Amino acid sequence: MPPWDRMPDLIKGPGRLVGALDAVLDSNARVAPFRILLQVPGSQVYSPIACGATLEEINQHWDWLEQNLLHTLSVFDNKDDIASFVKGKVKALIAEETSSRLAEQEEEPEKFREALVKFEARFNFPEAEKLVTFYSCCCWKGRVPRQGWLYLSINHLCFYSSFLGKELKLVVPWVDIQKLERTSNVFLTDTIRITTQNKERDFSMFLNLDEVFKIMEQLADVTLRRLLDNEVFELDPDLQEPSQITKRDLEARAQNEFFRAFFRLPRKEKLHSVMDCSLWTPFSRCHTAGRMFTSDSYICFASREDGCCNLVLPLREVVSIEKMEDTSLLPNPIIVSIRSKMAFQFIELKDRESLVESLLVRLRQVHANRPARYDTSASDDMTSLFYSTNMCSDHKFGDVEVAAAQNNEQSDKETSPPRHPEALTAVLQQSGGQSPDCHLSREQIKISLWNDHFVEYGRTVCMFRTEKIRKLVAMGIPESLRGRLWLLFSDAVTDLALHPGYYGSLVEESLGRGCLVSEEIERDLHRSLPQHPAFQSETGIAALRRVLTAYAHRNPKIGYCQSMNILTSVLLLYAKEEEAFWLLVAVCERMLPDYFNHRVIGAQVDQSVFEELIRQHLPELAEHMQDVSALASVSLSWFLTLFLNIMPLESAVNVVDCFFYDGIKAIFQLGLAVLEANAEELCSSRDDGQALMVLSRFLDHVKNEDSPGAPAGSHHAFFSDDQEPYPVTDIADLLRDSYEKFGDQSVGQIEHLRCKHRIRVLQGHEDTTKQNMLRVVIPEVSILPEDLEQLYDLFKREHMMRCYWEQPRPAALRHDPSRPYVEQYRIDARQFAHLFQLVSPWTCGAHTEILAERTFRLLDDNVDQLIEFKAFVSCLDVMYNGEMNEKIKLLYRLHIPPALTENDRDSQSPLKNPLLSTSRPLVFGKSNGDAADYQKQLKQMIKDLAKEKDKTEKELPKMSQREFIQFCKTLYSMFHEDPEENNLYQAIATVTTLLLQIGEVGQRSSSSGSCSQESGEELRAGAASPGQDSVFADMDARKNPQDSRAFPEASEGDWTVSLEHILASLLTEQSLVNFFEKPLDIKSKLENAKINQYSLKAFEMSHQSQPEFKLSNL
User: Fold this and answer.
1) Lowest mean per-residue pLDDT among 34-43, 238-247, 606-615
2) Is 1005 exposed, middle or buried (0-12, 13-18, 19+ CB in 10 A)?
3) Multiple choice CATH, 265-368, 2.60.120.330, 2.30.29.30, 2.40.50.140, 3.40.50.920
4) Which residues form the Rab-GAP TBC domain (predicted)?
5) Which residues are CB-contacts of 950 (< 8 A; sequence separation ≥ 6)?
6) Which terminus of the chain has a smaller tally of CB atoms within 10 A, N or C?
């Protein structure tokens, strides 16, 4: 048992655990009445660990120690190690509390600066890698905890520990994290687990684990969206400046996202302040406690009790914001008055003066952006009265009014293509389609209930939103009010009011333009509710075409996706054409974010969230189903179409009612209710197909008894009718059950789950891309699949490192998931040079970089300065696994255009430096007797090559003398530091002499006498001289400036050798054959590359910023 003891004392001390820890190292601190001491058995020394003023406080400290520390001590065998570990942990906790006592490191610049210096020194990242925050914690390696420091930067999670002289460094890019979760292990009840492709790491013993996990989750989410989700990157400006991210920014961003999700506001809306207050709620005759949210264009309120009362006040509706007299009953009150002659009283507002001032500034800005006039009919004491004159035409339905200006409708009629002025259901009713009297009476009852509600709670977008209205919505909105209430609940009415004439101009611009999207829309027009009378005529089809085409023109990033036609069809049934357009905007751009794009990431994230909700709320069903994801995938169409294509239309519109009021939460809870209603049959189903049949039949028999229209036909007519009537479920009952049983999920919980599962979904896409990429490449290369996988990871990491530290970057270089798999990750010439240096077997010392540049130019077929993974691997495969002739062919191609260019930095003056060192013993010669046989051998070789030439599929250009010298220089560099270096130099000298003679033979045979013979004579002399380097016979000429034209351009054009010449010559030297045919090990290269890839990039970036910095200092 760990050596702990508790001792009461008489002197009062600090109450908090960490406050007590401060006293541990303070020799002047007074002894607390309760302490926890550490004693090593056999020692008379006691070390104080914690202290408290009361027994309750010291017990709380003991509980924390039991949960976070005691269980870990069993892994130590030595009691002295236990004491050292515990003391080290206590000191680290004290240091962390000192550094975070003000809750923000930025507020303690000295502490943060100290941590930043250590972070930079320990991990050697480029300066662009900004540290966000740091914590003291333990990292578990198996069963052994390592106490150290966790550093969270904008692109990486890093851990550093130094224990008994042994350092542990861990660097995990956020983009590699596949799962981030809170869990427990054998020793601790609460840890943070980081899961990457091959490893799991547990971190524990944080003072504030909730805060750490939240920041980790936010950093991972922001980084993955920035680097892997290109579509979101374009929409979210916050993601484009990662260097500006701080801990405070992350918290503000999370709060901003919650605010937009909770009130379903546009993405561009920026939250300015959140403060506690109370709102006067006349329906309850009291003040309701909650929080006020103020943003660019809205004032919002949410009660502390979820669902009790919410309020959305667009500033365009506000006419005045006034301070009232401060009293004991009404402390710090303000009054917000709106155009519909309602006023809202807020009290208990801290810093009221600055709040009102900032609100008035934004109020003036909002109204200044619209034509405005001063309302003289209002009371004199209101100083800020603005009325917009650019609203849509007045609409009245029941007692609900949506005010707007009539002049816009008139101008739209003159400038826009003809649009249908009414909702399609209204047209059908006017044409004679009437509902039975019983349905009309039910409809009238609902209208009466809603009218009563409007009187008490408000009738505009500024209405009080309470539990009562949720119940009315779940009963089904009356058809005559449905379209207008959809506009109010989604706040599409604000977009409609702020953009007069916008839809008409879009219709004008988009119609008649032929494109792929238009073709897709035309193909789906007649599949949209084909059984509904409204879409059996050109009136409905034309309206649907205009709305879909206009939206595709507005948002080309989304364009048109399947299921949008079904949704838009239903919107047109209950809303006017322009209203339906803005409802579609609200759904696609803020209520279902990222649903309607290339990869439907948003829908997949919600499917993953739904899967977790199934496990939480329906554990028995989840346990029975071997793969819960099968149920979630079945429900994909539920989310994409809001059940419109799944259950009868008259029932599905009630679901849409709930969706517009409660957002995606309504779909989650209804999905759970459907699964619960069919749990017994699902548990007895034999396979996924039968489960799908069960769910489809159930949903097909969900009816709406209150619907005034005739029941629409089933969407699942392919199921045969049963012998016995299938039991019917009323949609109102199903929705009521969903709210009662599964309505406890808050917006905050759903957003947290979305953040968690977005990481998994995006990484799932990355895994799919990787597997498809490997599936394409594996059949074409000889590199082992496991090595290919590591090469892919290195290639991707090289791409990512530039994304990390070189901002801003052109869009062409970012990850683009819309491209084919083989083209999603591409690297430029500098990135390729890094990888070439790390993994290529053809390392040539200082010449390596030049060879990498030529290789890149060769692989860059389309000259866009980028290459894909497939081209990179194909080249490496030749280097490692190709036959000798394939390797020589690759080398040959690297020394002719386009790889070798006129501007090549190493080929401007081929004779500027000697190819071979003159200090090496490379002189060779032949006896006169051997010379004749050598000439015969040469002539015979040329004849044989001429025969082979006809068999070549595609003849490569011949190599000029300048190109040949570069080829030789590369070979020389490749042989450097090889065990057979001397033999290889002798062999290449022999081959070079032979090739020079071959070039001369070809030059003489093709020359008509006009070519210069001086160069040839010089070459022959140089080649025949036994005392001179055969490759550089003109060394003396190089020394004399007047003789520097050793290879004039005219003669160089005539002197050529072919690939066949070079290959045949190389085959005459066994040492060269052995060099090119020896097996090469790629695994060791890959292991070294994984270790050195980061340091190479860091060195390059530091070298760029400090040119005088030398490699020896690294």
Assistant:
1) 238-247
2) exposed
3) 2.30.29.30
4) 476-663
5) none
6) N
